[in-house]
TrEMBL record:
Ranges for domain HIT: 10-117
Protein name: Histidine triad nucleotide-binding protein
Positions occupied by motif Histidine triad motif: 101-105
InterPro entries: Histidine_triad_HIT (IPR001310), HIT-like (IPR011146), HIT-like_sf (IPR036265)
Active-site residues from the entry: 103
SUPFAM superfamilies: HIT-like
PROSITE patterns (UniProt xref): HIT_2
Taxonomy of the source species: Bacteria, Bacillati, Actinomycetota, Actinomycetes, Catenulisporales
Top-level taxon of origin: Bacteria
A GO term, aspect molecular function: catalytic activity
Length: 117
């Protein structure tokens, strides 16, 4: 069911603490941790603690939680002292989504090309 922890979900395991992560921020509803395969000097993932399969499902099922995630991307940028940064929600395998628990990538600390690849 939407919002419930999923036994086979990597990010639910990070929320539960059964898989380690380098956590940089935590709130009542969100966790932010460093991406294991960073694509920029700062590459942090912000996730809702509750399980929603992607950003679109999160926005539809729990809009206030979606706002919490978005607010936390700015808090990560402030904490990492990023003047410019990019927030990315890969949605669907064709766009590069590999983990089916909604997450925002916060990328910064280098110049970022536009359009992305
Ligand atoms: P996406 O491809 O948008 O679904 O993003 C998933 C991200 O999760 C990728 O950038 C991975 O490098 C990252 N990732 C996968 N496993 C872990 C982990 N155990 N800890 C931190 N980041 C991870
Ligand atoms: Zn999950």
């Amino acid at each position: 069911m939407a919002g419930e922890p999923q036994d086979d979900c990597l990010f639910c395991k990070i929320v539960a603490g059964t898989i380690p992560a380098t956590i940089v921020r935590e709130t009542d509803t969100t966790v932010a941790f460093r991406d294991i395969n960073p694509q920029a000097p700062t590459h942090v993932l912000v996730i809702p603690k509750a399980h929603h399969r992607d950003a679109a499902a999160l926005a539809a099922e729990a809009p206030e939680l979606a706002a919490d995630v978005l607010r936390e991307t700015q808090a990560v940028a402030d904490q990492e002292k990023l003047e410019s940064y990019r927030t990315v929600f890969n949605t669907g395998s064709g766009a590069g989504q590999t983990v089916w628990h909604a997450h925002a990538h916060v990328l910064g600390g280098r110049g970022l090309e536009w359009p992305p690849g």
